[in-house]
Amino acid sequence: MFWSLAALCFAMAIGFAWSGYWLILPFAGFEIGLLAWAFRALRSREGDFESLVIEGDMVVLEWHCGNQGGRRELNRQWARVVCNCRTPGRNCRLSLCSHGHATEVGQYLNDEARLQLAATLRSRLQE
Amino acid sequence: MSDAAHAHDDHSHGHPSGIMRWLTTTNHKDIGSMYLWFALIMLFSAGTMALLIRAELFQPGMQLTNPDFFNQLTTMHGLIMIFGAIMPAFSGFANWQVPLMIGAPDMAFPRMNNWAFWLLPVAALMLMASFLLPGGAVAGGWTMYPPLFIQGGISYDLTILAVHIMGLSSIMGSINIATTILNMRAPGLTLMKMPLFVWTWLITAYLLIATMPVLAGAVTMLLTDRNFGTHFFNAAGGGDPVMFQHIFWFFGHPEVYILILPAFGIVSQIIPTFARKPLFGYASMVYATASIAILSFTVWAHHMFAVGMPVAAQLFFMFSTMLIAVPTGVKIFNWVATMWKGSLTFETPMLFAIAFVCLFTIGGFSGLVLAIAPVDIQLQDTYYVVAHFHYVLVSGALFSIFAGIYYWLPKWTGHMYSETLGKWHFWLSVIGMNILFFPMHFLGLAGMPRRIPDYALQFTEFNQLATVGAFIFGFSQLIFLVLVLKTIKGGDKATDRVWEGAEGLEWTLPSPAPYHTFETAPVVR
Which of A66, B71, B120, B304 is deepest in the core (most CB within 10 A)? Predict the structure, then answer.
């Protein structure tokens, strides 16, 4: 769809520019640029995920966000759940901390689900 | 998941309340509702202008307005109805329904969605404010033809800016809709399984993206002709005013389909529901929609047969225009075939959908008449043309919007609307609309020109009839407003499926649809 739109838009704009009506061309360029950014932005985010696995004494976090990804292993005994909310129950950030290093989790959740995840994690880590 | 030390977006989904909820919302349902309310306000604004126009035309001579103000009314009525009422209403439907129909949690770019909406009230205020400027609002017709548009006062610049802003809003909206449909469909929902409303919006978004630079370039060239001494369209400096018409209609004719393709989609959802049969010829409907979109790029000059062009060009544009009747006919045939031997019931959405099929066909036929170049040269700029495009845009686009609102309102509000009020609204609208626009065919055939505030005595009776119809049609819309407000406030509880014959993902959700939906993607088999 993108390439057909780009070809159509530029063909029309170049046709008009050829006749002297060149001011259509920059608008076509701007618009196709915006469309390209939109498709690219979506493409770069389509593989985003978060994974949190608790196995024995290990807590394994894996994530991919945009062009960045990573993996972190925490000791279950040392892992702490930190949930900070700017106002009670809202604008919350959830992190797993260990050895002075915090890793944010639950970015794709809403506040309600994030608080629920915090409670679940606390109980699972204490088991 | 990222290190907390890294800056990242705040993914909070708290619900701000009051005005901030609406200013900052990125929720597709909130934004859809705002589009629809905005469109309704614009419908009433431009509708009031239409009633003033019709009141002036009730009898020959000047009664309520002066010729310049009359021209301002006709111009602003057209601009606001197209860019302020019909297009935003369909964007409202897209925002509400596309994510629900494809099983997506929201639109692909929710913040851009918010921006796309909030640009519209700014542009509308600019347009409306131009009435207060020295010289009044623009009076050169919604098509903005030079030389009138080059010669006008400051309101012309403001209108060009407003058109730019509305165009930007449309581009952002259509990019959002196209990327949402292409990238965020539920697993298993292949393109050829998509509901037809989604298909028609995908094709509409394509048309919008393809043609908006042409409009933006055209009005920018008008602006530079007005203010920076260029002569793109200024004959005094060697420019070509007719070329503006070519450029404008190269955008303008696909724009006509931008206004009607989503209507086809809505009607294609409603008719199978109330016929309790699957849509007849789904694949042919998709191909017909795509064919109409492709052909729409090849017919623009039928709007300007009268300016003069080679016979070969006249023949090309005449036949290409007639060709559009083929895919449109496929659609009409398929809707009728869907109803054929179905278990029909006639709730208000179905009544509006049936009225759409019948009356849009009348508009289509008068379009075929106008496609014939020698006939068009006779009827150019007469009331026949006014009758034609109002049958397409009122009983076509607007009736489909009413049908869609009645159809999905229980899903949106959780309440059933009053069928009694709905049927009053339907019958008064259909009767009023036909009394208003049908006599205009006769006025046009008899030679009454459009865009004039006074006319010869022989046109009086049909004009009086049209004005009576206009007031019936106009005031019956207040019933619709009351109905919508009553439904939002309360009413019988709507079931999840709402309509017995309804099929699709949106009907699997509770009524009203929760604020967040499809956070886990459904699987379509």
Answer: B120
